[in-house]
Amino acid sequence: MERPTRRTGLFLVITGAIFWGISGTVAKKLFQQYAIDVNWLVTTRLLIAGFLLLTVQFCGRDHSQILGVWKNRSTAVQLIVFGLLGMLAVQYTYMASIKHGNAAVATLLQYLAPVMIIIYLVLRKQTFLTRQDMLTVSLALAGCFFLLTNGSISQLSVSTPAIVWGILSGLALAFYTLYTVPLLKQYDSLVIVGWAMVIGSFALSFIHPPWQMDFSSLTIAAYLYLVFIIVFGTMVSFWFYIESLQSLSPKETSLLSSLEPLVAVLTTVFWLKEPFGFFQWMGTACIIGMILILALNKQSSSKDNQPL
Questions:
Q1: What are residue 307's DSSP bridge partners?
Q2: Half-sphere exposure of 188 (CA within 13 A, CB side)
Q3: 280 domain-assigned
Q4: Is residue 80 situated within a structural domain?
Q5: In this structure, how many other beta carbons lie within 10 angstroms of the beta carbon of residue 31?
Q6: Long-range CB contacts (< 8 A, 24+ apart) of 287-290?
Q7: 1 found inside a domain
Q8: By C-alpha distance, which of 162, 147, 160 is closest to 98?
Q9: Phi/psi-derived region of residue 62, left when phi > 0, alpha when psi is between -120 and 50, beta in every other case
């Protein structure tokens, strides 16, 4: 297979990040205008996107891995755990936070995951607390304060359920990131993520089967929103992100993927007309700044990140 050019890699990662950011706002539109159930949307999104990813793997890559991942008992158990506590947890908590709040707040809270990972690794004594860590944690805390209070200590500008689900989304993403590393060393990303999506959708189907839906209440616009979320906001965005790593470094890909929260904020404010105060913009800037610092320094040498 011919290696993609750098220009192609830039196009893929930027497009994927934009799709990710827009899909959260589109989901909020479905919740508001069409009263779509969160359980149904997550189940359907994961099921269809998972099968699409596995189909891409079957048609264009090593298709023997699709069933091969299940032949090792230890790997199979890891995959099931990842599907339930990683993939399903990330998708459900994120969508629940959007439903109770908005896509901008949900996305920004989810991007606290890198800070949670830093704290976990320090507590496990697997890394030292560096000056960069102190800066990113400080930016994250300041960002959350401004974002959730809009500068007023007396009252929250975002509903409590949205905050709780958003923080849980960040925790789930931190687990997702840490737990998946051994699996991705053995199998293609499309295999692991595709099966994880299918596993997550199968589990949630017991709560809300995808066929139990009043489709008569949906308009053509609603169907187009669903297609965008499932195909572009889930399947294509992840595929593009993975493909971009063929021609870009992980540091560059991580940096460019930070466009997601920015897109989520902009589409929430200007498309859905959600109010966003001055201090919330300050909070947004803090959290995006934290993401950029982490991305820019992801591959920095150890001498640049000495312990305090």
A1: 130
A2: 22
A3: yes
A4: yes
A5: 18
A6: 287/108, 287/111, 287/112, 287/139, 287/140, 287/143, 287/144, 287/147, 287/261, 288/258, 288/261, 288/262, 289/139, 289/143, 290/111, 290/114, 290/115, 290/136, 290/139, 290/140, 290/143
A7: no
A8: 162
A9: beta
Type of residue numbered 247: S
Q: Give CA 181 to chain center in angstroms.
A: 16
Which pTM does this prediction carry?
A: 0.79
Which tens digit of pLDDT belongs to each residue from 230-281? 999 988 887 887 777 667 765 566 656 667 777 888 888 888 888 778 888 8
What total number of domains does the chain contain? Answer: 1
Whole-number pLDDT of residue 252? 62
Q: How does pLDDT run across 64-91, given as a tens digit for each residue? A: 999 999 998 999 999 999 999 999 999 8
At 50, is the secondary structure helix, strand, or coil?
helix
Select from 94, 99, 85 the least CA-distant residue to 37: 99
Q: Are 7 and 48 within 8 A, CB to CB?
A: no
Give residue for tokens 């066929």.
211
Nearest to 139 by CA among 282, 298, 296, 22: 282
Residues in the chain with pLDDT values less than 50: 1, 299-306, 308
Query: Cβ(157)–Cβ(13) under 8 Å?
Result: no
In a domain, residue 254? The reply is: yes
Task: Mention every residue, 6+ apart, whose C-beta is less than 8 A from residue 96.
Answer: 38, 161, 165
Place of tokens 């901008």: 104
Domain that holds residue 230: 6-299
Residue 303 carries which side chain, given as an amino acid letter?
A: K
Q: What values do phi and psi take at 307, rounded to 5?
A: -65, 155
